[in-house]
Amino acid sequence: MSEQDGVIAVWRVGPQGLLGGYALALVPALAAAARWLALAVRPDLDNLTSAGVVTGIALGFGLFSWWTVLRVRLELTAEGILMVNPWGTQRLPWPQVETVTLGGWGAEFRTLDGFKFTARALGNFGEGRRRQDERFAELQRLVEPLLADPR
Questions:
Q1: What is the pTM of this model?
Q2: CB 23 within 8 Å of CB 135
Q3: pLDDT score for 150
Q4: Which of 16, 26, 77, 151 lies in the 20 to 30 Å Cα band around 33?
Q5: Considering all CA atoms of the chain, what is the largest pairwise distance in Å, rounded to the nearest integer?
Protein backbone atom coordinates (compact mmCIF):
# COMPACT_ATOMS: atom_id res chain seq x y z
CA MET A 1 0.00 0.00 0.00
CA SER A 2 1.47 3.34 -0.99
CA GLU A 3 1.54 6.46 1.14
CA GLN A 4 -0.83 8.91 -0.52
CA ASP A 5 -2.24 12.09 1.07
CA GLY A 6 -0.80 11.05 4.42
CA VAL A 7 -2.58 7.67 4.33
CA ILE A 8 -0.19 4.84 5.09
CA ALA A 9 -2.63 1.91 4.81
CA VAL A 10 -6.36 1.13 4.77
CA TRP A 11 -8.11 -2.08 5.79
CA ARG A 12 -11.73 -2.91 5.18
CA VAL A 13 -13.82 -5.92 6.03
CA GLY A 14 -12.49 -9.05 4.32
CA PRO A 15 -13.86 -10.34 1.00
CA GLN A 16 -16.35 -12.76 2.55
CA GLY A 17 -17.72 -10.07 4.84
CA LEU A 18 -18.02 -7.64 1.94
CA LEU A 19 -19.79 -10.27 -0.15
CA GLY A 20 -22.26 -10.84 2.68
CA GLY A 21 -22.76 -7.10 3.13
CA TYR A 22 -23.44 -6.53 -0.56
CA ALA A 23 -25.78 -9.54 -0.70
CA LEU A 24 -27.68 -8.24 2.33
CA ALA A 25 -28.24 -4.96 0.48
CA LEU A 26 -28.70 -6.30 -3.05
CA VAL A 27 -31.19 -9.15 -2.58
CA PRO A 28 -33.96 -6.96 -1.08
CA ALA A 29 -33.19 -4.28 -3.71
CA LEU A 30 -33.75 -6.84 -6.48
CA ALA A 31 -37.01 -7.92 -4.83
CA ALA A 32 -38.12 -4.27 -4.78
CA ALA A 33 -37.19 -3.86 -8.45
CA ALA A 34 -39.25 -6.96 -9.28
CA ARG A 35 -42.27 -5.52 -7.42
CA TRP A 36 -41.97 -2.24 -9.31
CA LEU A 37 -41.76 -4.18 -12.58
CA ALA A 38 -44.90 -6.08 -11.60
CA LEU A 39 -46.59 -2.73 -10.94
CA ALA A 40 -45.57 -1.50 -14.41
CA VAL A 41 -47.01 -4.65 -16.01
CA ARG A 42 -50.21 -4.72 -13.95
CA PRO A 43 -50.92 -1.36 -12.31
CA ASP A 44 -53.25 -1.75 -9.35
CA LEU A 45 -53.39 -0.77 -5.70
CA ASP A 46 -52.14 -4.16 -4.44
CA ASN A 47 -49.00 -4.03 -6.59
CA LEU A 48 -48.39 -0.40 -5.61
CA THR A 49 -48.69 -1.24 -1.90
CA SER A 50 -46.44 -4.26 -2.30
CA ALA A 51 -43.82 -2.28 -4.21
CA GLY A 52 -43.82 0.46 -1.56
CA VAL A 53 -43.47 -1.97 1.36
CA VAL A 54 -40.70 -4.00 -0.29
CA THR A 55 -38.86 -0.79 -1.22
CA GLY A 56 -38.97 0.37 2.40
CA ILE A 57 -37.65 -2.99 3.56
CA ALA A 58 -34.89 -2.88 0.91
CA LEU A 59 -33.85 0.60 2.04
CA GLY A 60 -33.69 -0.63 5.63
CA PHE A 61 -31.54 -3.62 4.70
CA GLY A 62 -29.31 -1.45 2.52
CA LEU A 63 -28.75 1.10 5.27
CA PHE A 64 -28.12 -1.62 7.85
CA SER A 65 -25.63 -3.36 5.56
CA TRP A 66 -23.77 -0.16 4.77
CA TRP A 67 -23.67 0.97 8.40
CA THR A 68 -22.53 -2.35 9.91
CA VAL A 69 -20.28 -3.85 7.20
CA LEU A 70 -19.59 -1.79 4.10
CA ARG A 71 -18.40 1.48 5.70
CA VAL A 72 -16.25 -0.19 8.37
CA ARG A 73 -12.55 0.54 7.86
CA LEU A 74 -9.24 1.16 9.59
CA GLU A 75 -6.86 3.81 8.27
CA LEU A 76 -3.32 4.50 9.35
CA THR A 77 -2.21 8.03 8.56
CA ALA A 78 0.89 10.02 9.34
CA GLU A 79 -1.07 11.79 12.11
CA GLY A 80 -2.68 8.73 13.70
CA ILE A 81 -5.32 6.03 13.45
CA LEU A 82 -8.85 6.40 12.09
CA MET A 83 -11.30 3.62 13.02
CA VAL A 84 -14.75 3.64 11.43
CA ASN A 85 -16.91 1.12 13.27
CA PRO A 86 -20.67 0.50 13.28
CA TRP A 87 -21.04 2.35 16.60
CA GLY A 88 -18.86 5.34 15.82
CA THR A 89 -15.64 6.78 14.49
CA GLN A 90 -12.53 7.14 16.61
CA ARG A 91 -9.39 9.11 15.84
CA LEU A 92 -6.27 8.34 17.85
CA PRO A 93 -3.12 10.45 17.43
CA TRP A 94 0.07 8.35 17.43
CA PRO A 95 1.46 9.84 20.66
CA GLN A 96 -1.60 8.57 22.56
CA VAL A 97 -1.33 4.94 21.36
CA GLU A 98 0.61 2.57 23.58
CA THR A 99 0.07 -0.93 22.12
CA VAL A 100 -1.85 -2.85 19.48
CA THR A 101 -3.08 -6.41 20.00
CA LEU A 102 -5.44 -8.80 18.26
CA GLY A 103 -8.72 -9.25 20.09
CA GLY A 104 -11.82 -11.28 19.42
CA TRP A 105 -13.54 -8.48 17.48
CA GLY A 106 -10.51 -7.05 15.69
CA ALA A 107 -7.37 -5.04 16.33
CA GLU A 108 -7.32 -3.45 19.78
CA PHE A 109 -5.48 -0.18 20.28
CA ARG A 110 -4.68 0.69 23.90
CA THR A 111 -3.98 4.30 24.77
CA LEU A 112 -1.67 5.72 27.41
CA ASP A 113 -4.65 6.65 29.59
CA GLY A 114 -5.80 3.00 29.71
CA PHE A 115 -8.67 3.04 27.20
CA LYS A 116 -9.08 0.32 24.58
CA PHE A 117 -10.41 0.95 21.07
CA THR A 118 -11.30 -1.92 18.73
CA ALA A 119 -11.09 -1.70 14.94
CA ARG A 120 -13.80 -4.00 13.56
CA ALA A 121 -12.26 -3.88 10.07
CA LEU A 122 -9.77 -6.51 11.23
CA GLY A 123 -12.44 -8.69 12.83
CA ASN A 124 -13.23 -12.16 11.52
CA PHE A 125 -16.56 -11.36 9.83
CA GLY A 126 -16.94 -15.00 8.83
CA GLU A 127 -13.34 -15.49 7.77
CA GLY A 128 -10.96 -18.03 9.19
CA ARG A 129 -8.60 -17.15 12.01
CA ARG A 130 -5.60 -17.54 9.72
CA ARG A 131 -6.75 -14.72 7.44
CA GLN A 132 -7.30 -12.44 10.44
CA ASP A 133 -3.83 -13.28 11.74
CA GLU A 134 -2.26 -12.42 8.36
CA ARG A 135 -4.05 -9.06 8.22
CA PHE A 136 -3.06 -8.30 11.81
CA ALA A 137 0.59 -9.18 11.11
CA GLU A 138 0.59 -6.65 8.27
CA LEU A 139 -0.96 -4.03 10.57
CA GLN A 140 1.56 -4.76 13.32
CA ARG A 141 4.46 -4.51 10.87
CA LEU A 142 3.33 -0.98 9.92
CA VAL A 143 2.35 0.18 13.42
CA GLU A 144 5.39 -0.93 15.44
CA PRO A 145 7.83 1.64 13.95
CA LEU A 146 5.25 4.41 14.44
CA LEU A 147 4.71 3.47 18.10
CA ALA A 148 8.47 3.36 18.72
CA ASP A 149 8.94 6.85 17.21
CA PRO A 150 8.76 9.35 20.12
CA ARG A 151 7.04 12.53 18.94
A1: 0.76
A2: no
A3: 55
A4: 16
A5: 70
